[in-house]
Specification:
Layout: H1 6-15, H2 31-38, H3 40-56, E1 68-71, E2 76-80, E3 108-112, E4 114-122, H4 124-130, H5 132-135, H6 137-154, H7 156-159, E5 187-188, E6 196-197, H8 207-218, E7 234-237, H9 242-250, H10 264-267, E8 272-275, E9 290-293, E10 299-314, E11 321-335, E12 339-342
Parallel strand pairs: 1-10, 7-8
Antiparallel strand pairs: 2-3, 4-11, 5-6, 7-9, 9-12, 10-11
Helix pairs in contact: 2-3, 3-6
């Protein structure tokens, strides 16, 4: 019997247009999905990066409260200081000529940016079996240690700013551009005929010593021996002195006094208290050091060459994913003026 349907079927096969596969009618994956499925390190990276930066900024930055924070695109930054003009000459005759003067050449201040790194590794099996329960702790720990490193380093100029006998009469702490510790009674003045100036206060933080330090800052001289007219408006302290500082600056009467004398001078002087956790003895500093600063004129400088970054790489053969942080910065002073410090003893 003749099959009447065959020609019809053959016509369909011959003339029908096949359905083309598209992203809308086909179960598929993208190149990104493919790479993510193979490179488990890439799957982890966005979450770990987020954890790292959220942890790094979870507390307000402290060092920037007392530093001029700058950025740099060079291996180092340099500042030049110069001498200063002395008093103008009196004109005694209508025919006197101007006495032109030159300034003493300045001393160079160099900020060399140092690089710092930290990292951790994750095995494939750790990711498969544990995923974020333990892995997320690692970027948190790395971020906190990076933050602590910056804060501790930023305190070095203050913590090590005093003369310390190295056993042979020299200074074991670093000196600044003029050959003196940051806080010294003998800062040389370039154009003042051998005259020196001091920013070294003494004694514990109390009413009398704080007032003496305020006066000392007011007596700051430029390189020619003229007053610069600095005014202390910031008291920088470790946590151990916070209660003392508040009593001194905010009490109605003189703190620790027995005569009920008014504390109007300190109470209205406008000094703000800045507590720096990393100045403390527990962090390698001191619980007795205290400092005054003119926040508008000081030259305590911090340079970011590279702010903290977070990147990753996965080893092809071992399936170990590596994550690392990197940052680069420097800090120091371009001028001792605008700062007064006491070791608190």
């Amino acid at each position: 019997m003749e099959n009447k349907t065959m020609p019809f079927a053959m016509d369909l096969q011959r003339f029908a247009t096949p359905v083309q596969p598209t992203t809308g009618n086909t179960i598929n994956y993208t190149d990104t999905d493919r790479d993510t499925g193979t490179n488990f390190g890439k799957l982890l990276e966005p979450g770990l990066r987020k954890i790292f930066f959220e942890t790094y900024t979870e507390l307000p930055e402290q060092f920037s409260k007392i530093y001029n924070v700058n950025t740099s695109n060079k291996a180092m930054e340099q500042d030049w200081g110069m001498g200063a003009f002395g008093d103008w000459d009196k004109r005694t005759s209508q025919f006197d000529t101007v006495a032109y003067k030159t300034l003493s050449p300045g001393l160079i201040r160099t900020y060399t940016h140092e690089a710092f790194t930290q990292g951790f590794m994750v095995t494939r099996e750790m990711y498969d079996d544990d995923q974020y329960r333990q892995i997320e702790k690692m970027p948190k720990a790395m971020a906190r240690s990076g933050r602590a490193k910056v804060e501790k380093d930023a305190m070095i100029p203050l913590v090590k700013g005093f003369f310390k006998n190295n056993g042979s009469g020299g200074n074991a702490n670093p000196v600044i551009y003029d050959g003196q510790p940051l806080f010294s009674a003998n800062h040389p003045l370039l154009d003042a005929g051998g005259k020196k100036c001091s920013n070294l206060a003494t004694g514990v933080l109390n009413d009398a010593n704080l007032k003496t330090a305020i006066k000392l800052m007011k007596e700051t001289l430029d390189e020619a021996g003229n007053l610069v007219q600095f005014k202390a408006d910031t008291l920088i302290i470790p946590p151990a002195l916070e209660d003392t500082a508040i009593r001194l600056l905010q009490s109605t009467q003189i703190a620790g006094g027995e005569l009920n004398d008014t504390n109007k001078f300190l109470n209205s002087y406008g000094i703000k208290v800045v507590v720096m956790d990393y100045l403390s003895l527990a962090s390698g500093g001191s619980d007795t050091h205290w400092f005054l600063q003119d926040s508008s004129k000081h030259e305590l400088n911090f340079f970011w060459r590279k702010k903290p970054e977070f990147k990753w790489h996965e080893d092809f053969d071992t399936f170990v994913a590596k994550y690392r942080g990197y940052m680069r910065y420097s800090m120091g002073v371009s001028d001792w003026r605008g700062l007064v410090g006491s070791e608190g003893k």
